[in-house]
């Protein structure tokens, strides 16, 4: 049988093993591009610096600033300046604050079909809309890739998603990915790549494909990808980058590990209800719900079309008086284009609040809804509290549904809107300004001094794994604990991301405010969790800050992929109950002991944990040889340093 598109790219980038790896087997791949954003970038760069490599060794590395744009204190701009000077010195392009959200800008200005992108942000797969194999990872993995090292991951199962038919008017790309979430849930994509193909892909522009790939992260997928075809070529031409195009299609008889099919003509507008992206129902089923806020934007839905459709709906009308509406262009390019062609004026006239091209409300940086409020957003996540308002209810939908609902003040099926649907979706040429907004690396790096404000603190590193691990259960939590639960974001906490002692005071603060103090008093400990621990984002602070507090192991029913790797990278043992019912046998404050943990780990995946009352609990630590060495070294940074010294 022939190769899928994913397999073709993997073959071109495979460092090891030789041949055709089986799903689940660890593979190492070469990385072409890296991206970082400011919330994860400062730490990734401190880690890169600790490796002692003079210049990045990737084909292209870009540093974006999009998360921490509120400058209510000195911390954020200190970090921006650190990132800018670091990028200049080490061979990294710097996308200036105001240039847009990393995924939107990378798609527009840097995407290259067939290349591998590793980004320290979980929505890095957005670039799969332009035929890249784009994977989200922790900052430390990205730092290793920048230093020229390969990226290790379990060989994913490749799922062929065959699209047929054509969408009806008012049915959006967002509804395609919401349908995927409805069918598969937030756990349905773990260990998988979703490869879209079939005649229906011709119904989707590159930004629409990118919306689908972006929110594949909510399925827990390794990544998602579309072929690079003449639609991709046309997109790159409008970007003035046709030279980056290459045709990349699956073979006619491509082998897929699994297959599924979506008939686009049968889809209807969908909405994800609070507080999970997979609580998807038809908009019709909850139509009439009173709204307090409508937000269009985020890396999922902030393309030209997303704002143009809002302007089409709102032109000559006004946002309902009970609603505050915000609009966020995804990039300076989109912002400049709508400013020139009148769309921005239409949106302002309709009463929408225009925000700068950045993450903004998606990461809780402003625009928190009123207490108990209902917010309808085109974003990708609606986890409890992420909006900045603990009891707000956030619904996720398409820009089409959001715009029509903003007009009427209640959740509304956009197909009931009396005006027609517009078909022209993209301008002929985009307004680009790379010279002004993307700073190339300095030609004379030796003259660049890295500026470090007081918020940049040295990187904490733990020692090698102990011979015997004995520690208290500091906290027991349930299923689907997100990285937002572990290490919350928001305008107070995010600015501390380069200051681990300070940010660690917020670990688990939403679940258990006494956790940091208890962890410090106990000299560290163990966390016990249910299924899908660490879902949601690549935020490595959710592993790094607990490591700083002395967390040695997490015993869970299962882990989300990126978080599990982050735990390994920071020397925290990710242990899975061999018998999930043992979860009930452990209580908070129990003292657990893993005798000869180093030897047990070397001997295989099965480990025994001694619990109070003489009970023995069996756990598994399924790791590759390389991951085992990383854990024994006490984390990836120690491992890389040892490797460099050998
Ligand atoms: Fe930013 Fe939200 Fe995307 S925080 S990168 S817009 S998921």
TrEMBL record:
Q: Where is the Aconitase/3-isopropylmalate dehydratase large subunit alpha/beta/alpha domain?
A: 8-409
What GO molecular function terms would the record report? 4 iron, 4 sulfur cluster binding; aconitate hydratase activity; metal ion binding
Coiled-coil positions are none
Which of the seven top EC classes does this enzyme belong to?
lyase
- Repeat keyword on record: no
Q: Pfam family of this protein, just one? A: Aconitase
Q: Give every Aconitase A/isopropylmalate dehydratase small subunit swivel domain span.
A: 518-579
Q: Which cofactor does it need?
A: [4Fe-4S] cluster
Concerning InterPro entries, the annotation shows: Acnase/IPM_dHydase_lsu_aba_1/3, Acoase/IPM_deHydtase_lsu_aba, Aconitase/3IPM_dehydase_swvl, Aconitase/IPM_isomerase, Aconitase_4Fe-4S_BS, Aconitase_4Fe-4S_dom, Aconitase_put, AconitaseA/IPMdHydase_ssu_swvl
Report the catalytic activity: citrate = D-threo-isocitrate
SUPFAM superfamilies referenced in this protein's UniProt entry, alphabetically: Aconitase iron-sulfur domain, LeuD/IlvD-like
For this UniProt record, the keywords arranged alphabetically read as follows: Iron, Iron-sulfur, Metal-binding
Q: What GO cellular component term, any one, is given? A: cytosol
EC number(s) reported in the record: 4.2.1.3
| Stored CDD domains | AcnA_Bact, AcnA_Bact_Swivel
Protein family per UniProt: Belongs to the aconitase/IPM isomerase family.
Q: What PANTHER family does the annotation carry?
A: ACONITATE HYDRATASE B, ACONITATE HYDRATASE, MITOCHONDRIAL
Quote the protein name from its UniProt record: aconitate hydratase
Q: Which organism is it from?
A: Alicyclobacillus cellulosilyticus
